Amino acid sequence: MGVILRRAAFVVLVLLVAAAGWVAYHLRDRHPGYALDLCLAPPPDAAASGGVAAAPSRLRAGFAREVITPDLSRTVWLAGFANGRRATAIHDDLWAVAAVLDDGTHTLAVVALDAIGLFHDDVIEIRRKVEAAVAIDYVVVTSTHNHSTPDLMGLWGRRTGFRGVDDRYRDFVIARAARAVVSGAAARRPAQLSLRA
Question: How many Å apart are CA 99 and CA 15, to the nearest integer?
């Protein structure tokens, strides 16, 4: 009886170590050393005039969009509601839509994805691709949280506990989101901002 208990304890210990290793691997920092140093301070001449820029800067805005519709020749698991929802047809295209605003001092980009959501690691990858192509101070990535889009979070596979993300599609979305921002930056034109009550 003692030998059986020792063997069982050894098997349980091995399983616990394997599970801990699996968890540690999947929770690791996939972007070690990544830091964001965002400083949107007024230009130096603004400090001398009491915080107000001596001459108003000129607002420029650019917009672009890229299709992120998946290829249904591969299995596409839809996110939200329940597992096992395989895409069978495309009703409308999915988009990555970008807006780039530039006040002459700072540049801000916002890209919205037709997706249920995206993890921070993926946002960092989009920012790095944009950073390699164009100078933008900050890139905001958001999603429409649509429940009829491909799983990009790994929660809605064929069954509970099965990952539904197609990594090639994920890479495609990241590349297209970055391309939308870069295209939006290239499309910047003088713009006016008005607010109505």
Answer: 49
Each residue's pLDDT, cut to its tens digit, for the chain (197 residues) gives 678 888 888 888 888 888 888 878 877 777 777 776 666 566 566 555 555 544 455 899 999 999 999 999 999 999 988 899 999 999 999 999 999 999 888 899 999 999 999 999 999 999 999 999 999 999 999 999 999 999 999 999 999 888 899 999 999 999 999 999 999 999 999 998 777 76
pTM of the model as a whole: 0.76
Tokens 């603004």 belong to: 46
Query: Which alpha helices (H) appear in 80-147, and where do they start and end?
Result: 120-133
Residue 122 corresponds to which tokens in the numbers above?
Answer: 């993926």
